[in-house]
Amino acid sequence: MTSTTDTIARLRAEIRRLECSRAMLGDQRISSGCEALDALFPGGGVRRGSLVEWLRGGVGSGAATLALHYARQACRQGTSLVVVDRLRQVYPPALAGWGIDLAQVILVHPRDVREELWAWDQSLRCAAVGAVWGEIERIDGRSFRRLQLAVEDSGGVGLLLRPLRARIEPTWADVRLLVQPCGGQQVRRLSVHLLSTRGSAARGTVSLELDEWSGRLQKARDLHETRTGNLAASLARTTADRRATGTYGSSVDPV
Amino acid sequence: MILYERDARRGERVRACCQRAAAQGIRPGMPLAEVAATGMLEKTGGSAEGSYHIARHEPEEDRQALLHLAIECQQFSPLVGMAEGDSPDGLQMDLRGLDRVFGDERDLHGRVEEFFRRRGYFARLAIADTPSAASALARYPTEAVPPIIAAPGDRSLLEQLPVAALNLPDHVQQMLQHLGIDRLSQLESLPRASLAARFDSSLLQRLDRILGRADEVIVACHAPEDLNVRLAFEHPIVQPEAILWAIQRLLVQLAERLNACGLGVLQLECQLICQGGRSCEIRVGLFRVTADPDHLLGLIRMQLEQQRLPDAVHELRIDATSTAVCESRQRDLFAESIPRDLTKLGALIERLSSRLGSERVLRPELQADAQIERAYRCRPLTGEPTANKAATRERSRTDRSPPAAPGPMFRPLRLFDPPRPIEVIGIAMDGPPAKFFDRRETYQVARAFGPERMETGWWRGPSVRRDYYRVETTGGNRLWLFRRLQDQQWFLHGEFE
After folding, report:
1. What is the set of domains in chain A, with CATH numbers?
2. Cα–Cα 20 to 30 A to A188, which of A87, B14, B61, B349?
3. Using an 8 Å Cβ cutoff, are A95 and A131 in contact?
4. What is the distance in angstroms between the Cα of A67 and the nearest Cα belonging to chain B?
5. Is the ipTM of this complex over 0.85?
6. Measured between CB atoms, does B370 come within 8 Å of chain A?
7. Alpha-carbon distance B234 to B314, whole Å?
8. What is the pLDDT of residues B149-172, one digit of tens each?
């Protein structure tokens, strides 16, 4: 039994090595500072030279906030954070509030979707950029692949904020996560679902809490096992399944 | 005509004014509001009787204009310099050995006076043995002393000058006034050793300069190098490769000139003049000063690709509109990683700015202001050397510590501009909402934090008065709402995304 799992692990590592064009980058991980969240990523934390998709499961969900935790860590060594903001809705003082040094931020306001993708591509390609953070509403497969190759080259991190409808689209991101707000709690609570990862079938869910005053991120203390279990089960169903039955997971906002 | 300057602490003050204004009692240092109160102000510069044209004082423009005059004055003397100091307000000319060209000093005086009059300036001129003496004579004309001191070494006349001519700090001048010293001759009769001990050391230095006992040099002004290149074609060209090749040739020429004076480009204008008089302009702003033709070519190419030329090009002009001293750094043998990263970042910023426009690639900065929309400002990252410096200088003077960032949970990452009006059902008149509707969605409020009241200063025009609430719905969505206090209308301003 152990030999089988060992073989699978070895093969998985082999596949990842083949898929990653820059083997010399190694396996550097960025931690958010919250172990529970990092544990959701295969290998623990966001890999340098990868893209991560954060799907928003509703308005004011907290997806951008979680992504920002990784952006902050990725720019620790004085590299720049590029914020691509086509809709002009990012509020810079809030970035500063989450501990980002605004002197490291480059705010880009592209006019249209084409310029937006171009700005993403250029920024991800630059080795002096630690992370690129921003909303991408729609992206076709080819552009997505180009972004992935760009980020692998530079060793930065691309944190893509996506709408929920992007869930059915193919992805070139290393990890795709869904962030959902959870109501009815004493503190602000979010649940993060791992929807897909490249080169592994790992799935998982974690509940996180954000402290009302300090903004500290930590694992939720009392887990509603049944609820999250149901969620994971409903999310694990394939799109074809859902189409066939014509139902959506009750806890996922239909879009 | 009134020029005003903005002082961080004292507000807008009159910096200088014309004689007519002075006759009406307007003095430098007076608050502009006081002048406005007299009702004599016409901001738009109307020439109505009894009103003044007012404008902000621009020291840098003054300096440039003076430099321009200095260069024109080189027709009289090979050595023309600006008076020393932070804000120079005079020119100095070396007249040694010029009598063969212009005749006697009185003739030259007349010519220079005529030169300025033709340009619409009223100039006060004086000729003396030393630059300091001449400028003192020009600034503090007295009946006792003629503006031209022909006899060399005639100190007795210079000693008649008032002590103000020494241009001393205010407190020293006041002290001298208290002591009853108002002429240089009185200072001269005092023992030198005690003067140095009692007053500023600059007093003796300036006194010596006026009286010709200390050496003084005039720092000559030079005309700035002409930094534009052009190329006219015999036959108009249309092929993009040919145009790029020509641009590259021009850039190499420009780079040679820039290198010769140790300068680099911050802003570049490339004009492609087409047949039929139409032209196409490409503007390139840079993050780092550079004189590298290949790099500049890359930036021009990126914009050229997006433009449609109206017709065949028959002339090219490239003009370095803004330059700065090129910083050349000696390369370290080993530690090369940080500068290399900086160059890469610079290249990225220039590429982004070049294609998207410099007003779209920005650096945010916090500002100390309670109003949400004004709590930050954005500066373009390229092509603005003077503005950047001015901004940092201003910041260091007005608020020494940068404004503190808000708490992480207090400001939303996503802000709607303008705020979206929403329908609200509330329980208490001045409390948080219980339920609200936005874009055909209904939200039930589970928890609300607030109110956080925001009011702007009455002096900034229409006032903004809002009560902000951080709201969590039953579904866990975090939103930022406010009630406009004037009319109790509710708005959705942001999402805690």
Report:
1. 22-224 (3.40.50.300)
2. A87
3. no
4. 10
5. no
6. no
7. 7
8. 656 667 777 787 888 888 787 888
